[in-house]
Design a protein that fits this description.
alpha+beta, FAD/NAD(P)-binding domain, binds flavin-adenine dinucleotide
Length: 446
């Protein structure tokens, strides 16, 4: 919060106007005299889509963007290919946002994945379903997604002002004062769509949280989500790049706290891939992880299988039979090494302890988490504006009339696979439509 805002809160009602007057008299502030209908803070997918959804009925809409150009994070989404949403029934999305699915229900059902796809296809950007249901633009270029959004802003006369960092906001009788340093704008409605804190170089560095806090909102503790994890004493650094499809990942903190299956990728200092990224919102430094190296096979199944091999394939090398359990050969060899089992051991020579050790480690190899990747590596942010303080049917604040939220600034983070962009678009659409309706109601328009 800025100094001027603190002063204003201390002074009470009407003080903001006084501060504005003082600033102007001192030659420090420039007030844009026009009263706008809506200011959206942040030109990410949520802010842009909210602006597009609110505009078009004659309302004056301005988007203030901190960076020199809009949509920086959108441009790097999906490694520049933009996994915009997911295929399937929108009701299946609700389980992909940790505990936030219920809150998101009206937004997602009001503007679904099919609506999102139709929005872009109607404007000539066709979509394809790839990689287990992920939806991408046919061109696989995030730039094309952003270009459609910007063209739509232009068509609906939405003004986008880049290089404008909002530093403070104040509710006044007739709306909001929004300060970007010394430049002050006024609007009847305000949307905070400043994103989370991940990849701060793209512009989303948590400003929205302090702006919301300055208006009385609670911020649920933020942390990295969709992040890789660094592993203590990691023994697979040279196997970086190996991927384990459908691995079972369990998190332990004293007891087992969570278990899910997904693809796991070895990195040079730990683990990544959707199976880890999607669980990362629950993982903390010091947690134990167990990762199955043989798909979803349980310990007993592997034990039985090994016993059968020792009886039926006794003459074969243990190392050569393990890949039949879908374990990459180099990984099988490393596991044998770590368990002090000779590489050329014949299956028939496998003693009981070796079999138990192997089935134990292959069904859930134990790791200890050194750290969960920081905001510079995380693709999303957990925590944010408390959902209990926002109306799910409009995205309006329950505390400040006329204030709305959209996108990742909220306490919402989705799984990998297009769920975060869909949430940004759906909450943006809901906030924009709600504001458009209030503007029309106020002017007696249908
Ligand atoms: C590397 C990476 C890859 C990803 N890939 C995917 C993917 O393929 N699919 C998917 O669904 N999700 C993906 N995500 C997540 C997705 O990009 C975000 O969830 C989404 O961009 C959030 O949209 P938003 O509009 O809420 O916030 P953002 O996109 O973060 O936009 C917020 C905007 O607000 C601006 N802003 C911040 N503070 C201020 C201020 N004080 N004044 C003015 N402007 C301000 C920022 O500069 C920024 O432009 C990815 C994320 C990352 C980091």
């Amino acid at each position: 919060m800025t100094k001027s805002h603190d002063m204003c809160r201390d002074c009470g009602e009407g003080a903001w106007e006084k501060i504005v007057d003082e600033k102007v008299n001192e030659g420090k502030g420039e007030v844009r005299s026009e009263l706008l209908d809506l200011i959206a803070i942040g030109a990410g997918p949520a802010g842009l889509f909210c602006a597009v959804s609110a505009a078009g009925g004659g309302g004056k809409v301005l988007v203030l963007e901190k960076k020199g150009s809009p949509g920086r994070k959108l441009l790097i989404s999906g490694s520049g290919r933009c996994n915009i949403t997911h295929d399937g029934d929108i009701r299946d999305f609700l389980d992909h946002y940790g505990g936030a699915g219920r809150f998101l229900r009206p937004a997602l059902l009001g503007f679904t994945n099919r609506d999102l796809i139709a929005f872009f296809e109607d404007r000539g950007l066709f979509m394809v379903r790839l990689e287990g249901g992920k939806v991408f633009p046919e061109t696989q270029r995030s730039r094309d997604v952003l270009d459609v959004l910007l063209a739509e802003c232009e068509a609906r006369k939405v003004e986008i002002s880049n290089g404008k960092t909002v530093t403070s906001i104040e509710k006044s009788g007739e709306g909001f004062f929004v300060a970007c340093g010394d430049e002050i704008h006024r609007s009847r409605f305000l949307v905070i769509a400043t994103g989370g804190r991940s990849y701060p170089a793209t512009g989303s560095s948590g400003d929205g949280h302090s702006l919301a806090e300055s208006l009385g909102h609670t911020i649920v503790e933020v942390g990295p989500a969709l992040a890789p994890v660094r592993i203590r004493d990691y023994p697979f650094a040279d196997l970086a790049g190996i991927s384990l499809p459908g691995a079972r990942v369990s998190i332990f903190r004293g007891r087992k706290v969570k278990e899910e299956a997904g693809d796991v990728l070895f990195t040079h200092d730990g683990l990544s891939g959707p199976g880890i990224l999607d669980l990362s919102r629950y993982i903390r430094a010091g947690d134990g992880l167990r990762v199955s190296f043989a798909g979803e096979r349980r310990r007993e199944e592997i034990d039985d299988w090994l016993l059968e091999r020792s009886q039926k394939d006794g003459a074969r090398n243990l190392r050569s039979v393990l890949p039949e359990l879908e374990i990459p050969a180099r990984l099988a060899s490393r596991v044998l090494e770590l368990l002090d089992i000779p590489q050329d051991l014949k299956c028939a020579s496998m003693i009981r302890k070796m079999r138990i050790d192997l089935s134990d480690h292959l069904s859930g190899f134990p790791f200890v988490v050194e750290a969960v990747g920081g905001f510079d590596l995380a693709m999303a942010t957990r925590g944010g504006v408390a959902l209990s303080e926002v109306y799910p049917k409009s995205m309006e604040s329950r505390l400040v009339s006329g204030l709305y939220f959209a996108g990742e600034v909220l306490d919402v983070d989705g799984d990998s696979g297009g769920y975060n962009l869909q949430a940004a678009f759906s909450t943006g659409a809901l906030a924009g439509r709600s504001i458009k309706k209030r503007l029309a109601d106020a002017e007696g328009r249908p």
